[in-house]
Amino acid sequence: MFDSLKSKLKNLFKKGEKLDAESVYKEEPEEPAVQETAVPEVPETETPVQETVPEQVPEPKRDEPAPEAKPEPAPAPAPKKEDRKGKPVKGKNKRSDEMLSSSFLSKKIKDDPLDDILDELEVTLLESDVAYPVVQEIIVGVRNNLAGKKYGREYTLEEIVELAVKEAVSDVLRINVFDFDAWLAEQKKPTVIMFIGINGTGKTTAIAKIANRLKQEERSVVLAACDTFRAGAIEQLSIHADKLNVKIVKSVQDADPASVAYDAIEHARSKMKDVVLIDTAGRMQTNNNLIAEMKKIVKVAKPDLKIFVGDSLAGNDAVEQAKVFDEAVGIDAIILTKIDTDAKGGAALSIAKTIGKPIAFVCDGQEYEDIEKFDADWMLERLFDQVTA
């Protein structure tokens, strides 16, 4: 008993408690131990213990930050409103990745309506003189890209499809963008450029337009009349040479076209001329003699650039011509003629897609100045004006 009293006093003094007689001499059998532990702890925490215990016991009150978690979904509507109010609202001025952005996802593109729209678009592209294989490739690509995806409610399915097709066509028209002037500035002299194409496409006139353009840039030019198959072709190029006051190297009808090209290049080299423009025969591309002739000229002249001249009104025929010449001698760039009379513009897309070569120039009239560098945006707008008309 004394031992317990002694330890009790020791504990109390340790904690700096004030002792009174009652607390020391009151002898309740084991009760003091209970008071003993309670007495030292009460002064330290005093009122906080009694107040905090009831507040902390119901743990649900700690979970009441749950309303603070609600702000997480709350921000989501805010950006949505901002996006919907933001301009431009129309899909035409938005990229497809924005239209299909996850923050907008609300409506799924279903196969049936998508197929209906693409079928209609396919017919329109074919009517615009776009080659059938090219149309198929574009349509299949767009279908695969859009099928099953979602788009914002603020856009129509037609807008989504139209933008996707425009981007596909734009990618084709911008293949290997070719800057003729920048390329020419880096070439050795004389620079040899060979022109290939079928009779009636405006090839000889296109050569004259390029010659005029080079003259205006103060470059000296030599014309090579290598279409010796037709006397009329030699005469036509000679008339252009006289009008432009440039040198022409020619021979008699049925002379070896490769030898004419060689003579023209040697003349340009000896006279320190800048550019040699080679005109070639334009019999049907299926003519084996013509293909052999082209290959020989390429072997002898070693042209720095081979340009295919295509008639934009020829449609699929122009595509086939370009394919044959490209396989036979290789094509580096394209000039499209009669673009002013082509209300649809599908030939540019078809040829560029089929042979994968850039369009350097378009000719839009009969005058020497009627030739312009190809502008993909202009052609894209021209084509879709017809598609959406």
Task: Please provide a written account of the structure.
By secondary structure, the chain is an alpha/beta fold. The chain has three domains: 2-63, no CATH class; 90-173, SRP54, nucleotide-binding domain (Four Helix Bundle (Hemerythrin (Met), subunit A), Up-down Bundle), CATH 1.20.120; 180-387, 3-Layer(aba) Sandwich (Rossmann fold). 54% of the residues lie in helices and 11% in strands. It has helices at residues 2-14, 21-25, 31-56, 60-63, 66-69, 77-85, 96-99, 111-127, 132-146, 157-173, 180-185, 203-216, 231-244, 257-270, 288-301, 316-328, 346-355, 376-387, and strands spanning 107-108, 150-151, 191-196, 221-225, 247-249, 275-279, 305-311, 333-337, 359-363, 371-373. An eight-stranded mixed β-sheet has the order 5-4-6-3-7-8-9-10, with helices on both faces. It is elongated and about 70 Å long. The relative contact order is 0.10.
